[in-house]
Specification:
It is built from 5 helices and 14 strands. By secondary structure, the protein is an alpha+beta fold.
Length: 207
């Protein structure tokens, strides 16, 4: 799903600093609907996803809002900084305390700390599924994000939804997985069930 990569290395023999990469990220003029992420000292531009991808995100949001506390909200284009690894991702959905988002400096375009998220959701596309399953999985675990929900339309066994919990040492110690068509329960502070039968495009050909 990565359409283009910007390598910002001021000296080839020296990895770019986080501040250098963050300043470059701040200055990007990203096309509407695209996202820019920082990983392995590179800035990658991610194109808009397939319509089914957006539909899944919308249906999940509706389910979460049924019991969502007033002090938290759901964000679709929020950059999160994985501080232990100096990575910056823009997840498909982030559930975050409202006060942490609204307290941001209005004149500074910075990501929030991933460790402050209550839940991060990634929905795989055809060309980025491996990153969501591996690189982002370990990054969110290292950041101690308490819940990582992976909606994997391209699992070789068929479309799957997996909730990872209990992050320790760069991995999640607990997980619950259901195929599309089954119900997944999310624990508190959500306390809702998600009917994945409503998710379209489990094996859609487009990303």
């Amino acid at each position: 799903m990565t359409a283009a990569t910007v390598e910002n290395d001021p000296a080839p023999e020296t990895p770019p600093t986080w501040e250098f990469m963050l300043n470059a990220w701040r200055g990007l003029d990203v096309p509407e609907g695209w996202r820019a992420e920082i990983d392995k000292g590179k800035i990658s531009l991610v194109p808009p996803p397939h319509r089914h991808h957006n539909s899944i995100a919308a249906r999940l949001q509706r389910a979460l809002y049924k019991r969502l506390p007033d002090e938290v909200d759901i964000y679709q284009t929020l950059g999160v900084h994985v501080a232990p690894l100096d990575k910056l991702y823009v997840p498909d959905l982030v559930v975050m305390p409202v006060d942490l988002v609204e307290a941001a400096d209005p004149d500074t375009y910075d990501p929030v700390d991933a460790s402050e998220a209550l839940l991060i959701v990634e929905i795989t596309s055809k060309n980025n599924a491996t990153d969501d399953r591996t690189r982002k999985y370990h990054a969110y675990a290292r950041a101690l994000v308490p819940m990582y929900l992976l909606i994997d339309r391209y699992d070789t066994r068929g479309a799957m939804v997996t909730l990872f919990t209990d992050p320790q040492d760069g991995t999640y110690k607990q997980s619950e997985q259901v195929p599309f068509g089954k119900v997944l329960s999310l624990p508190e502070p959500f306390g809702v069930t998600v009917d994945t039968a409503a998710f379209p495009g489990g094996t859609a050909a487009d990303s």
